[in-house]
Amino acid sequence: MNKRDINHFIEEMEMIGDEWTPEQVEEVYGDCTLEDALSDRKADVGTFFNIIEKVLNRD
User: Are the C-beta atoms of 46 and 40 separated by less than 8 Å?
Assistant: First the structure.
């Protein structure tokens, strides 16, 4: 990803409370396209939120 893509990734993820530094994005998703990186990370965050929801709603 280029610097513009990295900044866009950071902005998108901040909207859902997932904060990243440019260095972290480069390290984890530097070889990916912006679209692939966002898709992958949003899926990971969704999975995490689902786990949290199940834990909180246990009876």
Answer: no
Closest among 45, 16, 38, 41 to 53, alpha carbons compared: 45
pTM summary value:
0.86
Show the CA angle centred on residue 23, arms to residues 27 and 10, nearest 5°.
Answer: 100
Query: 32-49 burial, b for 16+ CB within 10 Å, e for fewer?
Result: bebeebbeebeeeeeeee
For residue 38, which of 4, 2, 9, 5 has the smallest C-alpha distance?
9
Q: What is the mean pLDDT of each run of 10 residues along the chain (59 residues)?
A: 97 97 98 98 96 91
